[in-house]
């Protein structure tokens, strides 16, 4: 079995194909797809989608790219929705939350501070409910680490990890898993491929970030969760392991990172 720990299955790029994409992934051995929210408007959408197929679960959170238009009231709504969702076995984490210092507009001082405020407040919610977090960490690794040290959640995943060896070690020491996906499949991605090959296997989970971060054989087309087994095969090749060993290990790692996730 495989697990896609990060897939925006509700994205408009999938149109009305979301359920069909989940079924296609299941036919390829993907037993669970984790669908993170990005703003309050799609909270009911991700929850409904997860409930409509038998191999999906969801997270609730406010993505840093959506912070510019977010209001403090959204944080109150998030907390209320999380409190209600704790009774839902499909609800597994707080996410997607984090910091993005790649997009120029988001690096302006006021927006940087707003991002940090929303990130910290969401970490507090995660800590209150003892939830793991799905973290967006683009160009923001050290700042992310600073704040999770101060407000430690119940572990989680550093999504689309592309940091240094020391940053990886710090995340692992703090109880986080590291997400690897399509970027790892490009031969020119030397740093990501080296990390995927050398990091402790029990720290690695697989993800697509579909419809984004397509693997090399799909790029520049739309990514989809059924690509996880082939992405896993690349990880197996990089580590000199069998595909079955990688499937077993990364599934166990995902379950450890997201203990509320129920697999059938």
From TrEMBL:
Q: Which domain of life is it from?
A: Bacteria
Q: Has UniProt tagged this entry with the keyword Metal-binding?
A: no
Alphabetized, the UniProt keywords read: Hydrolase
Q: List the Pfam families.
A: TatD_DNase
The record's family statement is: Belongs to the metallo-dependent hydrolases superfamily. TatD-type hydrolase family.
| Protein's recorded name | TatD family deoxyribonuclease
This protein's species is Duganella margarita
């Amino acid at each position: 079995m495989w697990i896609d720990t990060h897939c925006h299955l509700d994205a408009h790029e999938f149109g009305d194909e979301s359920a069909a994409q989940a079924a296609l992934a299941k036919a390829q051995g993907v037993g669970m797809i984790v669908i993170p929210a990005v703003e309050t408007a799609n909270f009911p959408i991700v929850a409904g989608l997860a409930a409509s197929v038998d191999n999906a679960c969801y997270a609730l959170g406010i993505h840093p790219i959506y912070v510019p238009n977010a209001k403090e009231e959204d944080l109150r709504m998030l907390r209320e929705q999380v409190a209600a969702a704790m009774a839902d076995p499909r609800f597994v984490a707080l996410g997607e939350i984090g910091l993005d210092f790649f997009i120029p507009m988001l690096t302006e001082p006021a927006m940087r501070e707003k991002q940090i405020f929303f990130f910290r407040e969401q970490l507090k919610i995660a800590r209150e409910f003892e939830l793991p977090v799905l973290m967006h960490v683009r160009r923001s690794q050290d700042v992310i680490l600073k704040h999770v040290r101060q407000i430690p959640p119940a572990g989680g995943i550093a999504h689309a990890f592309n940091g240094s060896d020391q940053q990886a070690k710090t995340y692992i020491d703090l109880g986080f898993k590291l997400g690897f996906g399509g970027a790892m499949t490009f031969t020119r991605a030397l740093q990501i491929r080296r990390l995927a090959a050398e990091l402790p296997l029990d720290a690695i989970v697989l993800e697509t970030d579909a419809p984004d971060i397509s693997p090399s054989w799909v790029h520049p087309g739309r990514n989809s969760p059924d690509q996880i087994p082939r992405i896993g095969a690349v990880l197996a090749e990089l580590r000199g392991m069998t595909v079955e060993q990688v499937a077993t290990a990364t599934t166990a790692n995902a379950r450890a990172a997201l203990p509320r996730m129920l697999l059938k």
